[in-house]
Structure formats: C-alpha cells, structure tokens
C-alpha cells in the first residue's frame, strides 16, 4: 500500500515531465520542417520580386516570420515549464504547469495546421482562383499576428532581397578611347621685378 501511495505522489509530476518531453520532441520536429519551409518561402519571395510582385513576396516573408515566432515562443515557454516541473514544491505550481502544457498543445496544433507542407508554401506562387483565395486567407490570418518589431524585421528582409534581386548598381562603362587633349594656350610669362643685386661690402 505504501508503495502505491508513493507512486501516486510522483505520478502527476512524472506525467507532466513526460508531456513536456513529448512537446519538446514535437518542437524539434517542427523546427526541422519549418527550416525547410522558410528556406522555400525565401526563394518564393525572391522569385516574386524578380517578377515585380512585391505583395506576394511580402506575404511569403510575413508567413515565414510568423512560423518562426510561434516556434520561438513555444520553445521558451517549454523551457520555463521544465524549470517549474523540476521544483520540489511541484504541487504548488502544478496548475500553472498543466495550463502551460495546454497552451503549448494549442500552439503546436496551430503550427501543424498553419505549416501545411511544401505544397501549401508553393500555393503562394500559383495564379488559380483557389490559390488566390488561399493567399487572401493567409494574409488575413497574419493580420495582427506579428508584432511591430516582427513587421519591421520583415520589411528589412524584403529590402535586402530587393537589393539582392536587383543586383549591383550598374555604373556607366569607362570609355576606352583616350580623352581629347586640352588646347594649348600660350603661356604668358610675367616678368618678375628683380631687385638690384647688392654687392656685399667688406668691412675695412
């Protein structure tokens, strides 16, 4: 009986730790997937800029930033929860840990739904009516989801990509033919007034 009571005392803590590990593993899996997806979205933004489609380029970069922000927030939240579960007074913070796990699960579900795989990313490039409806849906979903700093980061990245796509500024070619010679003007020699040479007088 004593053993049963002992196992019950730690079961809730063990369960929370296990749930945290499961969420952490999912985070790592999503990070790998998102790395591949964000690379593709950067390519899409570059392709859109090459076609002078700045609107869709911005949409791809905002979606990329949103995914990165979601993962970053969930990752830091899990780190905090891991510290809480390691405390001796786990019973005092159990409610906070469970609430945090629930919130983490919701975020992970949102990430999983929002990522959608490479196919969903490529739909940003399509011109069909269905694809345009999807692009509008993504745009509305992102509305208000990014902080002011995130939006500034996206704008900075867009400007950097625009410079990259535009390439280096083309300066005029240096003429290979020799420049015409300047006309020779007669040099006017001005006579300088010369002071009479003084003969040194020897002292007698």
TrEMBL record:
Region (Disordered): 138-204
Ranges of Acidic residues composition bias in the record: 149-159
Keyword Electron transport assigned: no
Keyword tags: Endosome, Membrane, Protein transport, Transport
Stretches assigned to coiled coil: none
Entry GO terms, CC: ESCRT III complex; multivesicular body
Subcellular location: Endosome membrane
Database matches in InterPro entries: Snf7_fam (IPR005024)
UniProt-listed GO biological process terms: late endosome to vacuole transport via multivesicular body sorting pathway; protein transport; vesicle budding from membrane
One Pfam family recorded for the sequence: Snf7
PANTHER family: CHARGED MULTIVESICULAR BODY PROTEIN, CHARGED MULTIVESICULAR BODY PROTEIN 6
UniProt similarity note: Belongs to the SNF7 family.
Protein known as: Uncharacterized protein
Lineage of the organism: Eukaryota, Fungi, Dikarya, Ascomycota, Pezizomycotina
């Amino acid at each position: 009986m004593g053993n049963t009571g002992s196992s019950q005392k730690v079961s809730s803590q063990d369960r929370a730790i296990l749930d945290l590990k499961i969420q952490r593993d999912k985070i790592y899996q999503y990070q790998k997937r998102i790395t591949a997806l964000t690379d593709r979205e950067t390519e899409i933004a570059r392709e859109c800029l090459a076609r002078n489609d700045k609107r869709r380029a911005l949409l791809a970069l905002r979606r990329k930033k949103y995914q990165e922000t979601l993962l970053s927030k969930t990752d830091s939240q899990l780190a905090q929860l891991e510290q809480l579960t390691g405390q001796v007074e786990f019973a005092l913070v159990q409610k906070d840990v469970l609430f945090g796990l629930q919130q983490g699960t919701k975020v992970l579900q949102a990430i999983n739904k929002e990522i959608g795989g490479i196919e969903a990313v490529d739909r940003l490039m399509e011109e069909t009516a269905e694809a345009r409806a999807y692009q509008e849906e993504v745009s509305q979903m992102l509305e208000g989801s990014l902080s002011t700093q995130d939006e500034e980061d996206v704008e900075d990245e867009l400007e950097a990509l625009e410079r990259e796509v535009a390439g280096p500024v083309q300066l005029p070619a240096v003429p290979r033919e020799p420049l015409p010679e300047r006309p020779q003007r007669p040099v006017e020699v001005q006579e300088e007034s010369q002071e009479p040479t003084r003969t040194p007088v020897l002292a007698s």
